[in-house]
Design a protein that fits this description.
The chain is α+β, with helices and mostly antiparallel strands. It folds into two domains: 113 residues, Phosphorylase Kinase, domain 1, CATH 3.30.200.20; 169 residues, Aminoglycoside phosphotransferase (APH), C-terminal lobe (Aminoglycoside 3'-phosphotransferase, Chain: A, domain 2, Alpha-Beta Complex), CATH 3.90.1200.10. Helices cover 43% and strands 15% of the residues. It is built from eleven helices and eleven strands. Strands 3-4-5-7-6 form a five-stranded antiparallel sheet, sandwiched between helices. A hairpin with a 5-residue loop joins strand 9 and strand 10. The longest helix has 20 residues. It starts with a strand and ends with a helix.
């Protein structure tokens, strides 16, 4: 083992962040223990030549590696750990069918395994200036939402289910809250904003620059969706959330810019962004940037 990865039995490389995440529950640890056998089965069944797994900072909830198919087609093999937020990824990729996501070439639903189009050259949207990222994210989101208009979304869960899950995590960490009033208000807004409405669409919920890759088929393709049905305005928040320094410098201006680009209501986006800043259970509540952002965006 070196400083960036671990080894499973048989010498299979396991990214350290994935090992750490799987160690947090017995279900995930059991999945990790069976990962070598799953990979052996899939590479044989799908006739794949396997490369070393990706080990960048986004690889936290799955094992992902470049592969070459029997006909020479480059692809990506992805196996997702048991993960509430990502449980519908395969269904979402089937639904969007490559527009504007990476194409799902094959899947084993029972194993949570995906054979995906390899985006080439594959550099992420982080390679572009920040204002360009805003435009690309907005363009992709509007295409994702439009595809679900007037279609049957019954196989997918509603966003309120994920927000209720996060709410329980947040409440369990009450001793760490820096400002109980802000957190409670964030939780209240989650409940109000997350209620089902007739204008709900299928959301990616995790679209940000790290999950957008340059490709040959289209200039940019979205990867790693975590589909839920809900308010399209919510889908803009993840991009804002990873632009914390820009958001901290001008929270109202940043929210308005993205609202205009994505053609959503600016006040509603402000409330969603406030709620994430104040009540997200994965937030670093000791980070004064997020406390400032929450206070500046508070209704």
């Amino acid at each position: 083992m070196n400083d960036i990865r671990g080894l499973a039995s048989g010498g299979m490389i396991l990214p350290k962040q994935l090992i750490a995440n799987c160690g947090r529950s017995s279900e995930r640890q059991a999945w990790l223990d069976t990962l070598p056998a799953m990979l052996e089965d899939l590479t044989r069944r799908w006739s794949l030549r396997l490369g070393p797994p990706f080990e960048h900072s986004n690889v936290t909830c799955s094992w992902v590696a470049p592969v070459v198919c029997a006909d020479g087609t480059p692809a990506v093999l992805k196996l997702g750990m048991p993960h509430m937020e990502g449980a519908s990824e395969i269904d979402g990729l089937r639904f969007w069918n490559g527009t504007p996501t990476a194409q799902l070439l094959d899947a084993d639903d029972a194993l949570g395994a995906m054979l995906l189009e390899r985006c080439q050259p594959g550099d992420s949207l982080h390679s572009e200036p920040e204002h360009t990222r805003d435009v690309v994210i907005a363009t992709l989101l509007k295409r994702l939402w439009k595809r679900s208009e007037g279609t049957d979304l019954k196989p997918f869960r509603h966003l309120s289910e994920m927000l209720d899950f996060w709410r329980e995590e947040t409440l369990a960490q009450a001793l760490q809250w820096p400002d109980a009033g802000l957190v409670h208000e964030g939780l209240r807004l989650w409940k109000v904003l997350g209620e089902p409405t007739p204008t709900d669409v299928l959301l990616a919920t995790d679209l940000h620059a790290g999950n957008v890759l340059r490709s040959e088929r289209e200039p940019w393709l979205a990867i790693d969706p975590k589909p839920f049905i809900g308010d399209p305005t919510y889908d803009v928040v993840q991009h804002l959330h990873v632009c914390e320094e820009r958001l901290h410098a001008d929270p109202i201006g940043m929210v308005k810019r993205l609202a205009d680009l994505c053609e959503v209501d600016a006040e509603r986006l402000q409330f969603w962004t406030f709620a994430r800043a104040a009540a997200d259970p994965r937030a670093n509540w000791s980070n004064p940037l997020w406390i400032d952002i929450a206070r500046d965006l508070a209704p």
